[in-house]
Amino acid sequence: MMIELEYNQQHCIRQLCDSLKDDVVLWGFVEGNKGCAWTDDIINPRQAIIIVADFCYLLGCCENAKEIATILNENGKYKVIILGDDSWVQFLNESFPKNHSKYKRYAIKREPNVFSYDLLSKYTMCLNNKYKLKKIDKDTYFEVLGIGWAADGCCYFSSVDVFLNHG
């Protein structure tokens, strides 16, 4: 039986997230950002479903297929599903034969010295004068949350204060 985790229980599925070490959305959730999750066992979890904004993570082993399909039907529609490993592919193919498609997800480079402040500065100098580049503050945070395509920039954080300190 799958158990929906309470906010203060998110840490119990940490070991299942190891297969996706570089996924900042997933690790933000484990560290306390917004989202919801289910697992088979709080003490020794073998599988987990995590839903954060537009993303749904299927982690660990694939057991309880019928219950997982129900949870996904109720909570995971139109989400980008990210698999912890390929063992979930058969489950998706059998449970949702016509309702999913596979594609390669983009990745952000995380290697040291890849980000260029000089290049960013050159890009910002080319902006039309009607645009202004500024840090997201408290007021802007709430504006961004209200813009469908931009909300992902702030919606993963549990509060405006958490965003202002860690965003």
Task: Give me the secondary-structure topology.
Layout: E1 3-4, H1 24-30, E2 36-39, E3 47-52, E4 55-60, H2 65-75, E5 80-83, H3 88-95, H4 117-125, H5 138-145, H6 160-166
Parallel strand pairs: 4-5
Antiparallel strand pairs: 1-2, 2-3, 3-4
Overview of the molecule:
With 167 residues, the protein is of the alpha+beta class. It has two domains: 3-95, Aminopeptidase, CATH 3.40.630; 117-166, no CATH class. 30% of the residues lie in helices and 13% in strands. The longest helix has 11 residues, at 65-75. The protein is elongated. The two termini are 35 Å apart. The relative contact order is 0.13. The mean pLDDT is 89.
Instruction: Provide mean pLDDT, rounded.
Output: 89
| Helix-residue proportion | 25-40%
- Name the helix and strand elements from N-terminus to C-terminus, one letter apiece: EHEEEHEHHHH
What spatial order of strands do you see in the largest sheet? 1-2-3-4-5
Please count the helical segments. 6
Structural class estimated from helices and strands? alpha+beta
Question: Can I get a quick summary?
Answer:
With 167 residues, this protein is an alpha+beta fold. It contains six helices and five strands. The longest helix has 11 residues, at 65-75.
